[in-house]
Design brief:
The chain has 541 residues and is an alpha+beta fold. It is 43% helix and 15% strand.
Length: 541
């Protein structure tokens, strides 16, 4: 995004102001996710543009991004502007304690005087300000009325050279800031609970039990999305109704001992004399293990971004599917046949997308899955019966692709230590992936085997289709791999993703997926008693 903006050199003042606002907004919202090169280019562009941007525009932009911008290098950039702009940013910016401490060496005396006037900074930040001495705190300067900057003239060349020298100084300060940022304070004991109070607008203005900067300024009136600090939609809905909030979700940033997920409950309180709503009072605690999705710890994990994506996909998908069912079912009145047909197709497509989302969710859960669980009572699946069910489920797909399936049974019974739902899913996903890359008219050949010598594992072997006959295991597991001859109607999710998903499901029950030279073999722990294993060959069409 920043690269796209920088490729278009501003031609006039209006374009320069637009570029200033766009770059500032991108850095404020995504700065922590951008590569270092884009960050440097963005800050360099802001430094070059600054002489051309009116002070009023810079001040308004600082006020707009100060409340939601938590990217410390951008705060440092605005902090070194003229006092009016620096004041607009530093009076409202909310950073973690570590970021504030790293920011101080990169600020001037005026910026420190502004910070010295705040009463909501963490205690250690106040101490750091005090340690700089009275000489580093400048007297407040009167705020001058912003004037429109004159049009650039030929006399602006010296100012441009001065701007470049300021750029070098800014880059030096940013380097110093980033190196200081690496020296984090020693870890503190994790906080387990705190109290808080909000105003009538839902903004937290008092906390006890954690540093003030971690929660003060957050609102329970609006839901936070995309992993941003704040509360969930349940709290926002209860706030609008002035109802009790019970075990809602809150995410905080800041110190390691305070950041992460919390669960909070709160009650509305009213003025005893007038009955006027005054806000909420409540308490927050760390969530228990059973309250965390998939039993993950409170810290951020690699699967969080996928789970957040899944959460954001489900709601609109369910809404689309629900409205389509209303139309196709004519629940609110007669609907023309054309619209009903369209709605039924949307419902079908939504179900297909829902299956993809389920696969993504399973993959995210499996990425941090616990060790294989112990076999539960009755947790045994008849894989022979599961195979029959899967072939029935895939009948339409097989007919469309004109593909036959021939899976012979060797031995028996075919009992595996897995539940029916997971067994049906992993086998269905494996066969679907093989069908999608098979040529029309092909025969998918395989064996379901229980061998006395290897009775601890039941095996489902699928001979490689022609399209992947000579592909290596690394290629097959690559999400970007697309074999030649892949069917036009192949699954949206890649072959590599499907095979990884099958392997993850198998490993969750103590099995695995092996990719051999001639076949793909799904191993599942057998539940067959050794004495009852009998050899025989049954051919099924």
């Amino acid at each position: 995004m920043i690269a796209t903006i920088l490729r278009q050199a501003p031609k006039d003042r209006r374009a320069s102001i637009a570029a200033w606002r766009q770059i500032s907004d991108i850095l404020a919202q995504r700065g922590n996710q951008l590569p270092d090169d884009d960050i440097r280019r963005g800050l360099h562009a802001l430094a070059v543009l600054r002489p051309q941007i009116p002070e009023k525009v810079r001040r308004d932009c600082a006020e707009a991004i100060a409340r939601h911008g938590r990217f410390a290098p951008l705060v440092a950039f605005y902090a070194n502007d003229v006092p009016a702009v620096s004041n607009a940013m530093l009076r409202r910016a909310r950073l973690s304690e570590a970021d504030w401490q790293a920011l101080l060496p990169a600020t001037g005396a005026t910026a420190r005087s502004i910070l010295a006037g705040r009463d909501d900074l963490p205690h250690d930040v106040r101490r750091a300000l005090d340690s700089l001495g009275a000489g580093s705190v400048a007297l407040p300067q009167p705020e001058e009325a912003a004037a429109t900057a004159p049009e650039p003239t030929a006399n602006a060349a010296p100012a441009l050279e001065a701007a470049h020298s300021q750029i070098s100084e800014l880059v030096r300060r940013i380097d110093k800031f980033q190196s200081a940022r690496e020296h984090r304070p020693a870890a503190r004991p994790a906080r387990t609970a705190f109290l808080f109070e909000t105003g009538a607008d839902g903004v937290i203005h008092w906390v006890d039990g954690i540093t003030r900067g971690a929660a003060i300024g957050l609102t329970i009136a609006d839901a936070a999305f995309g992993g941003e600090p704040g509360t969930d939609a349940a709290a926002a809905g209860a706030f609008r109704q002035r109802a009790e909030i019970v075990d809602a979700r809150m995410v905080l940033e800041g110190l390691e001992s305070e950041s992460g997920e919390w669960r909070f409950s709160a009650l509305p309180w009213f003025d005893p004399a007038t009955g006027q709503f005054r806000g909420y009072r409540g308490s927050a605690r760390r969530p228990s293990q059973r309250e965390m999705p998939y039993g993950r710890p409170t810290g951020q994990e690699s699967g969080d971004s996928i789970r957040q994506l899944i959460h954001e996909l489900r709601s609109p998908l369910n809404a689309i599917s629900g409205f389509s069912q209303i139309i196709s079912g004519q629940m609110f009145g007669p609907v023309s046949a054309a619209y009903r047909t369209m709605a039924e197709q949307i419902v079908t497509d939504a179900n297909a997308v829902q299956q993809i989302i389920d696969d993504l969710e399973t993959a995210a859960r499996a990425s941090n899955a616990p060790p294989p669980r112990e076999l539960l009572v009755g947790d045994v699946a008849d894989i022979g019966l599961v195979m029959t069910q899967v072939e029935s489920d895939l009948a339409t797909l097989l007919a469309e692709h004109r593909i036959d399936v021939s899976i012979s049974r060797v031995g028996g019974p075919f009992l595996a230590q897995a539940d029916d739902a997971n067994s049906r899913r992993m086998i269905g996903r494996l066969l679907t992936a093989m069908v999608d890359i098979s040529e029309p008219g092909a025969i998918l050949v395989g064996q379901l085997v229980t061998e006395p010598a290897q009775d601890d594992m039941l095996q489902l072997r699928i001979v490689r289709p022609l399209a992947i006959r000579f592909a290596t295991a690394a290629e097959l597991l690559d999400p970007g791999f697309s074999p030649e001859g892949e069917a036009p109607g192949a699954a949206i999710l890649s072959l590599g993703f499907s095979l990884r998903l099958v392997d993850s499901l198998a490993r969750s029950v103590g099995g695995r997926l092996d990719i051999g030279h001639n076949a793909l073999t799904l191993h599942l722990p057998s539940a067959n008693p050794r004495a009852d294993t009998e050899l025989g060959i049954q051919q099924s069409e």
